[in-house]
Write a structure and sequence with these properties.
Elements: E1 3-15, H1 16-24, H2 28-36, E2 40-42, E3 45-46, E4 53-63, E5 74-75, E6 79-84, H3 101-109, E7 114-115, E8 124-130, H4 133-144, E9 149-157, E10 164-167, E11 170-172, E12 184-186, E13 194-203, E14 208-215, H5 222-229, H6 244-251, H7 257-264, E15 271-280, E16 283-288, H8 293-307
Helix pairs in contact: 1-2
């Protein structure tokens, strides 16, 4: 687990953040933020005052990244690209998260390395990561200015015969059910969103279509919501196209694996970030995933067939 409660001792009274700067090499901003977030313990009690003083023994929750041996698929001097497996978080959800992609990145490339954009936990595929803070700022600005071209692959229910352009505004749903507030929906009050869809291959035996998706905007769950909106939800999606009861069961990790396959057609979301194209530091990059996504889809659908 990346977060470990460690014992420290200050020989003299001093500001806790200064001790952490000297002992752990943190910046003042980082030290004070960590204290404010409740990672400092004095006599077993949380001390969340950024200007708190320490003397003698105390404890601090230290972040120590872990590895599971995932190697980047593309390496440059200032950035790397990982081909993230489905199910791996980008960042820890909380202090009990055992592993995330940022653990792997920082374990291999140091504390200043950071992930510059996000894809969903269940979405697999390419994630661009900066190896230093300056590159992180530059990559984030590139995304903000929409200078990054992304292509995804997805397996969707039903047959798509023609290219389509989906322009439907997206809004995070705010209602009385707090647990599903993360769900996004098409709504006239939402933010402008655009996705181009190109059908690649139809599978008649299970009535699904492999498609290529090119999002021009980067809204949360954009491709998933847009495909649901045009009545071709992504195979394996446990949220869009499901009942509120089953969505809550999934979010609470109470949805049985076989029930999920029965409801959505697969044990994972069949959405994959397949290509990244961008210009950075006067060089043009076009990076493609090395994963055989069609094979993954076939295996997932085979699992589905076994459960029927």
């Amino acid at each position: 687990m990346p977060f470990i409660l460690k014992n420290f001792s200050s020989p003299q009274k001093q500001r806790a953040f200064k001790f952490l700067i000297n002992e752990l090499g943190l910046s003042q901003k980082e030290s004070q933020r960590h204290i404010a977030n409740g990672r400092l313990f004095i006599n077993g009690e949380v001390m969340a005052i950024p200007t708190a003083e320490v003397e003698g023994d105390f404890q601090f929750l230290v972040y120590e990244p872990s590895t599971r041996g995932l190697k980047p698929t593309f390496v440059e001097e200032k950035f790397v690209v990982f081909d993230k497996p489905s199910g791996v978080l980008i960042h820890p959800q909380n202090r009990n998260t055992e592993y995330s992609l940022v653990d792997e990145l920082k374990y291999q490339y140091g504390r200043d390395a950071n992930i510059a954009h996000r894809i969903d936990q269940e979405t697999s595929g390419l994630v661009l990561c900066a190896r230093n803070k300056e590159t992180e700022r530059d990559i984030k600005m590139m995304f903000e200015l929409r200078d990054m071209k992304k292509k995804y692959l997805a397996l969707v229910h039903g047959e798509l015969k023609d290219n389509i352009c989906i322009e439907a505004p997206l809004l995070r749903r705010e209602d009385e059910c707090a647990i599903v507030r993360m769900v996004v929906k098409v709504h006239e009050d939402g933010k402008a969103s655009k996705t181009d869809i190109k059908p690649l291959k139809y599978f008649k035996d299970n009535d699904t279509t492999l498609i290529e998706c090119s999002p021009y905007t980067g809204r949360q769950h954009q491709i998933r919501v847009h495909m649901f909106h045009v009545k071709h939800p992504i195979v394996g999606d446990p949220i869009y196209g499901q009942s509120e009861e089953d969505i809550i069961r999934f979010l609470d990790k109470e949805l049985d694996a076989y029930r999920r396959i029965e409801l959505s057609g697969a044990s994972r979301l069949l959405l994959h970030a397949n290509e990244l194209e961008f210009e950075l530091y006067d060089s043009v990059y076009h990076i493609k995933s090395k994963v055989d996504f069609e094979k993954i889809c076939q295996e997932s659908m085979a699992t589905h067939s076994q459960c029927e």
